[in-house]
Amino acid sequence: MRASLLQIAVEPDESVDSRRARVAGLVRAQRGADLVVLPELWPVGAFAYESFADEAESVDGPTFAALAPAARDAGVFLHAGSIVERAAGPSGAGAGGAGDLYNTSLLISPEGTLVRTYRKIHRFGFDRGEATLMSAGSEITTADAAGAVLGLATCYDLRFPELFRGLVDAGADVFVVPAGWPARRRAHWTLLARARAVENQSYMLACATAGTHAGVEQSGHSMVVDPWGEVLAEGGTDEEVLTVDLDVDAVSATRERFPALKDRRLGLPTPPAP
């Protein structure tokens, strides 16, 4: 599998529509790849909280409309990063407020069809920002694409290893994690991306943004990590494209050669309260 990670710069002087058009052109330039990955909330910016409600869209809205033809033209599976989704139905009919919005990833086929969505389970911000403006997803999500089983997660999800165990149990051998991770915690980003790959003996495609979201400098340093924890490619802090050829069979080979996952002990008794 040839995977291309597009580390998109999100800057305030570029409109959302202009960025969509520019990124669609970058996707078209990836012909020859099998899978292209974009970062989290790149249309609006992961920290541009005040714009979330105004820029919210349906899963088949303007971001999909811009990128589906690009995926088709390039002949690639496209993990389109994530959008601010306004949910369909009564709670998402435009009333506003928490419960209407989700941080939702889109996976588009080489034919330009929407084949999977993933609503981010762990929302960042504690008592502010995304955690108060968006609802949480509730489903572990995988997808067959480009000869692999992709396990989908987003940014802050990286801090919760139980989600990745669940993805492994669901058959995932390649994790795809778009992010809008702040530069001040870059060391956590690179450490956790490698840790999730090592402990689950899976490939990690961790695609971050560059630039500045609402005054928050972004980490960059998108990474491709192999099932043994080796970093195959790592970006810098500017917009760039990382392209890496993955041997998906290396996942099963690693798990057979060093079968640590077989030693998992689940259902251990809960210790008594002190």
UniProtKB/TrEMBL annotation:
- Write one Pfam family the protein is assigned to: CN_hydrolase
The UniProt entry, under InterPro entries, shows: C-N_Hydrolase (IPR003010), C-N_Hydrolase_sf (IPR036526), UPF0012_CS (IPR001110)
Q: Does the keyword Nucleotide-binding apply?
A: no
Question: What are the protein's UniProt keywords?
Answer: Hydrolase
Q: Which residues form the CN hydrolase domain?
A: 1-248
Picking any one GO molecular function of the record gives: hydrolase activity
Query: Which segments cross the bilayer?
Result: none
The entry sums up its family as follows: Belongs to the carbon-nitrogen hydrolase superfamily. NIT1/NIT2 family.
- PANTHER family membership: DEAMINATED GLUTATHIONE AMIDASE, NITRILASE-RELATED
Q: What is this protein called?
A: Carbon-nitrogen family hydrolase
